[in-house]
Design a protein that fits this description.
Structural class: alpha/beta
Helix content: 25-40%
Distance between the termini: 46 Å
Shape: globular
Oligomer: single chain
Largest sheet: 6 strands, mixed
Strand content: 15-25%
Bound molecules: beta-D-glucopyranose
Number of strands: 26
Number of helices: 21
Length: 720
C-alpha cells in the first residue's frame, strides 16, 4: 500500500454492503431539493464564496471545483459534514491535466513516448500533489482522438490513434486513481470538430465513432474510471450533453459503466444554443434524462428541475439513480469515512526526476542530417559537440512560462528550466551566445541583426521556436499551422548565415514545417515539456539521452491536406503517380511530411526476418509476430517497434493500416534481438454491415517497423 495511507482500491473494499445499504437509507431521507443539490457542481475562484458556502449548508451542492489548497477545501468540507442537514461530503474537482504543481509534458507529447508506464507514473504523481491540496477528483484524462491540428485541444489528448490512445487512457486512469478520482473526457467525438474550429459540430458515423473515437473511453471505463464528462459538441445534430445514445445506450447499457456522468462547463444550458431546448428547464430535463448525472456550472438541475419532477415530467427514479451514482462515488472515494483526505506532499526531487525522464522520452527527433564538407564531412548535426560554440536563438530559448503549455494548473514559471539554462548547465559560459531575435508573435525584425551576428560567431545555431503555451488547449484553434509572427523569417535569416541550424520546436499541435524540413539539417520536436523542458532538451541535444519519442499524430506538408491521418481507408482509386484519375493533389504529394509513429534516433535500427505464427489462426487465437531488430549504429538506443495490421478483404472497406501492438526495445550498438509482439485476433474487429463488431475470416497483412509508413511485411490467415 502506498504512503498515501490507503489507495482508492482499499477505499472501495471498505465500501461494504452495509455502507451501500446506508446509502439507500440516506436517499430515502433526502428531500427532492437535496437530491437535486447532489447533482449540482459549481466552480469557485480558488476558494468557495460565502454564497457557495451557504449552498453547501443548505444541501444544494454535490461538489465544487477550482477550490485549491487544503486550507480552502477543509473549511467548506467541514460545513458540508457538520452543518448541512444530511452531512454529505463534497467532491472537490480540478483540471489536473499534465501535472498539478510539477508540470509534466503535455499529454500529446507524452503519448509520443509510447510508454504507458511513464503516463501512469506522471498521472500518479500529479494526483498525489493534487490530493495534498485537498483535491479528490480530476477532469482528466482527455482522450479525444483528433485528426485536425487546427483544433487546439489536440494538445490535451494522445493524438490520432485509438490503440495508443486506449493504452494511454487506461494508464492515466490507473495513475490518477491511486489517490484521486479521474474523469475521462469529452464524451464523445469532440476532437472531430469541423474545420478544427473549437466547439464546432461534428459529423461522425456510428461506425467511425465506435472504431476510432470511442475505444479510449471504453479503455478508461475498463480501467475503472470514476466519471465521464459529456462533451460540448453535437454529433450529427445531437448534442453530446443531451445524447441518450451515448450516455445511456453505449456507456451504461453496453459498457456497464457504474460511475457517474458530469456535464462539461455549462454544456447543459448550451443545449438551448444548440437549439434542442427552448427553456432552461427543458435543457435540464433533456440532459438528465439522457444520462448526464451532474450539472457543471449551469445551475439548472438544482434551480429548475424540482417542478418538472413534481409534475411527473421527469421520473423521480431518474433523479434517484443519478443521486445514487454520486453518493456511491463519494462512498468509493472514502469521503464518508474521511471527508478531508489530508495527504502529505510527495518528495519534490523524485517528482522532478520523473518530469525529466518523461520529458526526455517525449522528444521526437524529426531530422538529423550531416553537415560540413570535405574533412569535416559528414557527422550528423546532432548530438552537439561538447566543445562547440553555440548560438542559442529564438523567443522560446529562454522563456519560462511557455514550456508549461496549456492547462498547467498550479505550474509556476519560476520552476521551469529553459533551454538556454539547460545548455548553459553543460557548456562553458564562453561557448554559449544568446539572442532572442524576436518575440513569439512579434511583427518587428529589429532583433534579427543580433541573432544573425550570434549565429555567425558560432559553430551551430540552436533556434528555439514555436507557439505560446496558450495557443493550444481550449478555445485555441488556429487557421494556419506555421510558426507565429516573424519566427519563420528569423529562421531563414539565421540559416542564411551558413551556420548549421538545429531547430528546436515548442508547440501543442503538428505544425507545417516545409521550409525547415527542406533547409534545416536538424529538427527536434519538444512539444511543451513542462518544468524540466530545458534539461530534457539539453539531454537530447548533447546526446546524454538518445531520443526515442515517436509522433502520436501525423504532420501534414500543408494545411490543405488536413484532415490527414494514417489509418484511413483505401478509396477505390488509391494514389498512383502514373494515373491522374487517382486520389491525390495536383500541387502537393499525398503523403504526410512526418508520418504517425515516426521519430529518429542517434543510432539506426534494421528489421529483418519477420515471422508471423500461426500462419492460420482462429478468432480465439493470439498471433505472434517475431522480428529481428538490430542496432546498426554506434550508440545504444531505444526503438519503438510498431506492429500494424491490414485486413485485406472485408465486407466494409478496411483501413490501410492499424496499430495493434508496440514495444520499446533498448539495444546496444551492434546488438540484435528477436522481438515478439502479440496480437489477439479478436482485437482485429471492425464494425460490420450490421453495425456490430466482427472479425471476418481472410488474410491479414502484418507490418512491423519503425513507423506507420514503413516496415517488413508478413501475414496470416484468419480461419473460421
Ligand atoms: C473544459 C473541460 C474542463 C472544464 C472544467 C471546460 O471548459 O472543456 O475540459 O474540464 O471546463 O474546467
Amino acid at each position: 500500500m502506498s504512503r498515501l495511507g490507503h489507495s482508492l482500491l482499499l477505499a472501495a473494499l471498505l465500501a461494504s454492503p452495509a455502507a451501500a445499504q446506508n446509502l439507500d437509507s440516506l436517499l430515502a431521507r433526502m428531500t427532492l431539493e437535496e437530491k437535486l443539490g447532489q447533482l449540482n457542481l459549481l466552480s469557485a475562484g480558488g476558494r468557495a464564496s460565502p454564497e457557495q458556502m451557504q449552498l453547501v449548508r443548505a444541501g444544494k451542492l454535490g461538489g465544487l471545483f477550482n477550490v485549491i489548497g487544503a486550507e480552502n477545501t477543509t473549511p467548506v468540507q467541514r460545513i458540508a459534514v457538520t452543518e448541512s442537514r444530511l452531512k454529505i461530503p463534497l467532491l472537490f474537482g480540478l483540471d489536473v491535466i499534465h501535472g498539478f504543481r510539477t508540470i509534466f509534458p503535455i499529454p500529446l507529447g507524452e503519448a509520443g513516448t509510447f510508454d504507458p508506464e511513464v503516463a501512469e507514473a506522471t498521472a500518479r504523481a500529479a494526483g498525489v500533489e493534487a490530493a495534498a491540496a485537498g483535491i479528490n477528483w480530476t477532469y482528466a484524462p482527455m482522450v479525444d482522438i483528433a485528426h485536425d491540428p487546427r483544433w487546439g485541444r489536440i494538445a490535451e489528448g494522445s493524438g490520432e490513434d485509438p490503440y495508443l490512445g486506449s493504452l494511454m487512457a487506461a494508464a492515466r486512469v490507473r495513475g490518477f486513481q491511486q489517490s484521486i478520482f479521474a474523469t475521462v473526457k469529452h464524451f464523445a467525438g469532440y476532437g472531430a470538430a469541423e474545420a478544427g474550429r473549437e466547439y464546432n459540430e461534428t459529423e461522425i458515423s456510428e461506425r467511425t465513432m465506435r472504431e476510432i473515437y470511442l475505444p479510449p473511453f471504453k479503455a478508461a471505463v475498463d480501467a475503472g474510471v470514476a466519471s465521464v464528462m459529456s462533451a460540448f459538441n453535437s454529433i450529427a445534430g445531437v448534442p453530446a450533453s443531451g445524447n441518450a445514445w451515448l450516455t445511456d445506450t453505449v456507456l451504461r447499457q453496453e459498457w456497464h459503466f457504474p460511475g457517474f456522468v458530469v456535464s462539461d462547463w455549462t454544456s447543459v444550458i448550451e443545449l438551448m444554443q444548440h437549439g434542442v431546448a427552448g427553456s432552461q428547464a427543458e435543457a435540464g430535463r433533456r440532459a438528465l434524462t439522457s444520462g448526464v448525472d451532474m450539472d457543471m456550472q449551469s445551475g439548472i438541475y438544482v434551480d429548475s428541475l424540482a417542478a418538472l419532477v413534481r409534475a411527473n415530467r421527469i421520473p423521480l427514479a431518474v433523479v434517484d439513480s443519478a443521486v445514487m451514482r454520486i453518493l456511491r462515488a463519494k462512498l468509493r472515494l472514502g469521503l464518508f469515512r474521511d471527508p478531508y483526505r489530508a495527504r502529505t506532499s510527495p518528495s519534490a526531487a523524485e517528482t522532478r526526476a520523473l518530469a525529466r525522464r518523461a520529458a526526455g522520452e517525449s522528444i521526437v527527433l524529426l531530422k538529423n542530417e550531416p553537415v560540413g564538407r570535405g574533412a569535416a564531412c559528414c557527422a550528423p548535426t546532432l548530438p552537439l559537440s561538447k566543445t562547440a560554440t553555440i548560438a542559442v536563438i529564438g523567443p522560446l530559448a529562454d522563456n519560462k512560462p511557455e514550456p508549461l503549455g496549456p492547462w498547467h494548473t498550479l505550474g509556476q514559471a519560476e520552476d521551469v528550466v529553459t533551454v538556454l539554462q539547460g545548455i548553459r548547465a553543460r557548456a562553458s559560459a564562453a561557448q554559449v551566445v544568446y539572442a532572442p531575435g524576436a518575440g513569439i508573435e512579434d511583427t518587428a525584425t529589429a532583433g534579427f541583426a543580433a541573432a544573425v551576428a550570434a549565429a555567425k560567431r558560432a559553430n551551430v545555431a540552436v533556434l528555439v521556436l514555436g507557439e505560446r503555451g496558450d495557443m493550444s488547449g481550449e478555445a485555441a484553434s488556429r487557421a494556419s499551422l506555421g510558426l507565429p509572427g516573424v519566427q519563420q523569417q528569423l529562421l531563414e535569416a539565421v540559416a542564411a548565415t551558413g551556420t548549421p541550424v538545429v531547430l528546436v520546436l515548442m508547440n501543442g499541435r503538428p505544425l507545417v514545417l516545409e521550409w525547415a524540413s527542406d533547409h534545416v539539417p536538424a529538427i527536434v520536436e519538444t512539444w511543451f515539456l513542462g518544468v524540466e523542458a530545458g534539461n530534457a532538451t539539453a539531454d537530447v541535444l548533447f546526446g546524454d539521452v538518445n531520443p526515442s519519442g515517436r509522433l502520436p499524430v501525423t504532420f501534414p506538408r500543408v494545411l490543405g491536406q488536413v484532415p490527414i491521418y494514417y489509418n484511413h481507408r483505401n478509396t477505390g482509386r488509391p494514389p498512383d503517380p502514373n494515373n491522374k484519375f487517382t486520389s491525390k493533389y495536383l500541387d502537393v504529394p499525398v503523403t504526410p511530411r512526418y508520418a504517425f509513429g515516426f521519430g529518429l534516433s542517434y543510432t539506426t535500427f534494421a528489421y529483418s526476418d519477420l515471422k508471423v505464427s500461426p500462419a492460420r489462426a482462429r478468432v480465439s487465437d493470439t498471433v505472434t509476430a517475431t522480428v529481428t531488430l538490430a542496432n546498426t549504429g554506434k550508440r545504444e538506443g531505444t526503438e519503438v517497434v510498431q506492429l500494424y495490421v491490414r485486413d485485406e478483404v472485408a465486407s466494409v472497406s478496411p483501413r490501410v493500416r492499424e496499430l495493434k501492438a508496440f514495444q520499446r526495445v533498448t539495444l546496444k550498438p551492434g546488438e540484435s534481438r528477436a522481438v515478439s509482439l502479440r496480437v489477439a485476433v479478436r482485437d482485429l474487429w471492425f464494425i460490420g454491415l450490421d453495425m456490430k463488431p466482427v472479425v471476418e475470416p481472410g488474410t491479414f497483412r502484418v507490418y512491423v517497423g519503425s513507423n506507420s509508413a514503413e516496415g517488413v511485411e508478413g501475414g496470416f490467415e484468419c480461419i473460421p
